[in-house]
Amino acid sequence: MRFLFLTGSHMSDALSPKQQFTIKKLNKNLRRSTGRAIADYNMIEDGDRIMVCLSGGKDSYTMLDILLELKAVAPIKFDIVAINLDQKQPGFPEHILPAYLEKLGVEYKIIEEDTYSIVQDKIPEGKTTCSLCSRLRRGILYRTAKELGATKIALGHHRDDMLATMMLNMFFGGKLKSMPAKLVSDNGEHVVIRPLAYCKEKEIEQYAILKNYPIIPCNLCGTQPNLQRQVTKDLLNGWDEQFPGRLETMFTAMQNVVPSHLADTDLFDFKSIDQHSGVINGGDIAFDKEEINHQPETESSIDEQYFQQHENLMIKELT
Q1: pLDDT in tens, 237-258
Q2: Is residue 15 part of a domain?
Q3: What residues make up the domain containing 124?
Q4: Which of 37, 173, 255, 257 could share a disulfide with 169, CB 3.0–4.6 Å?
Q5: pLDDT score recorded for residue 229
Q6: So what's the pLDDT on residue 127?
């Protein structure tokens, strides 16, 4: 994938009229999805100080951009401080993020911690480094949030990350569990939010290309072959290409959980059910086939299909 490193007015000058149309449409979609997620989960409140975690990847750049835009028009007041963890990976371009954030005019902090050497020392060659690296990063981020007086920690995971996590937990963890859009951290001290929870990765990817973010690749985990998460994401992307709308349906299912029709006795009291309990969530339909509601193709959905085809052509031109 090719990213051009242009910023400011030079970026808009370099875009063709078709590309300018596309970036406006993508920005509108991403702002709407982010705003809806923030409202649905009450992610940001008046007086909050949001610590936005930047990795140098497409997701976190997009999250910062959209949050700054929403901050400018929000009916409440909240502050944003961007942070990046420099893990001292060999060849890490440490000048890129400070230069970008200075030009953006946002408050920021660069944390320098040599977690790279720790991970390389502790993890045997050929084993994945994600688990230890993640634990080390979390501890540093929690400490930094305290130092900065942050009330919320914002991470750049999106809808597709949440779906992949759910699938990973089903396949390998034996749990119906995903990434939460908002929850207290595992040490019980911070509220973690994911403002991009409703955003599609393919839209973020296209937006990042058109915005020409100075992408910094992760040489620690991004180059490891056969990661279960990447294999799962490839599976989901294959479904999305072969069966358009499937990922949307899967994410909707995550928001429409019916405990009475699963098998977790902690979530639903199956033992007390008797003939006097009444029909619960539609009851048991025995051997009847489950009815699947197919949404009719409306004028708006046809328009969305046209726009998606237009986007796909645009992305091929850009890469």
Answers
A1: 999 999 999 999 999 999 999 9
A2: yes
A3: 8-235
A4: 173
A5: 82
A6: 60
List, in sequence order, every beta strand (DSSP E) within the chain: 49-54, 79-86, 107-112, 152-154, 182-184, 191-193
Closest by Cα among 246, 210, 204 to 34 = 204
Q: Which residue has the tokens 């915005």?
A: 211
Tally of structural domains, the chain: 1
- Closest residue by Cα to residue 29 from 319, 314, 315, 304: 304
Instruction: Considering only residues 59 and 295, tell me which one the structure prediction assigns the higher pLDDT.
Output: 59
Give the CATH number of the domain where residue 157 resides. 3.40.50.620
Would you say 190 and 155 are in contact if contact means Cβ atoms under 8 Å apart?
A: no
Residues in the chain: 319
The residue assigned the tokens 């009916």 is 75
Q: Residue 228 falls within a domain, yes or no?
A: yes
Query: Tokens at residue 242, please?
Result: 């072969």
Helix then strand count (H, E) for the chain reads: 11, 6
Question: 164 is written with which tokens?
Answer: 């992949």
